Amino acid sequence: MPNPDPPEVVELFDVIESLVCDAIPFNGTIVRSVGTRYASEGEFLTGKGAAKYGSRWNRPGIVAIYGSTDILTATMEAYQQFLAFGFSLSSMQPRVTAGAKIVLQEVFDLTSPTNRRKIAFSRNELVSEDWHAIQSAGDESWTQAIGRGALKAGSEGLLVPSAQNPKGTNLVIFPKNLHAGSSMKILGKEALPPHPSIWPEK
């Protein structure tokens, strides 16, 4: 049986649930840059990687699809380890960048200062939290808790400020919560690589 959430997390969830009525629709294109093994049509919009490893807005086990609303932010997000630590270019691995047309009806907008004030977090707190270190220590970060609260409240996703690009915005989608009439469509899917299961033997 999972441990019960501490009172401060329960309180956060209650606030998020009260804000569902203020959710906004999203109808636009996002950009994703993924490793080649996750770039086939059947893998590109599954969120398996985030569910396996966790990320800023979801803890491991929660399926979430991350995308950016512009290609610069998507690139900065994809290569954030290189930007942060200056890895050698010799360690670069191929990636596939593609767009997806997304139509959602209820998204919790954390680019809104009003919504951030209501959950008592500043923009800087959301983008600067070291979620990876917190997760590695066996805990759930506050941003992961916010994502879990939005998922629990029935939100289809989060619109969030990018931690990599101060002017950028990301969309985090919870496919489990997609409403009737919502959709995700890969653009140019015919040009994506095949699934790794049918790659030729080396």
End-to-end C-alpha gap? 45 Å
For the record, the count of structural domains works out to: 1
Structural class: alpha+beta
Strand content: 15-25%
In the predicted model, the low-confidence regions spanning at least 5 consecutive residues are: none
| Helix percent band | 25-40%
The shape is globular
Largest sheet descriptor: 6 strands, mixed
Mean pLDDT: 91
* Distinct helical segment count: 8
Order of helices and strands: HEHEHHEHHHHEEE
The tally of strands reads 6
Radius of gyration: 17 Å
Describe what you observe in this structure.
The chain contains eight helices and six strands; from the N terminus they run αβαβααβααααβββ. Strands 1, 2, 3, 4, 5 and 6 form a six-stranded mixed β-sheet that branches. α1 (7-18) crosses α8 (142-152). It has helices spanning 7-18, 48-53, 71-78, 80-85, 113-119, 123-128, 131-136, 142-152; strands spanning 24-35, 65-68, 95-109, 157-161, 169-173, 183-186. 31% of the residues lie in helices and 22% in strands. The mean pLDDT is 91. The protein has 202 residues and is of the alpha+beta class. The N and C termini lie far apart (45 Å). The chain has one domain (7-188).
Structure summarized in a few sentences:
This protein is α+β, with helices and mostly antiparallel strands.
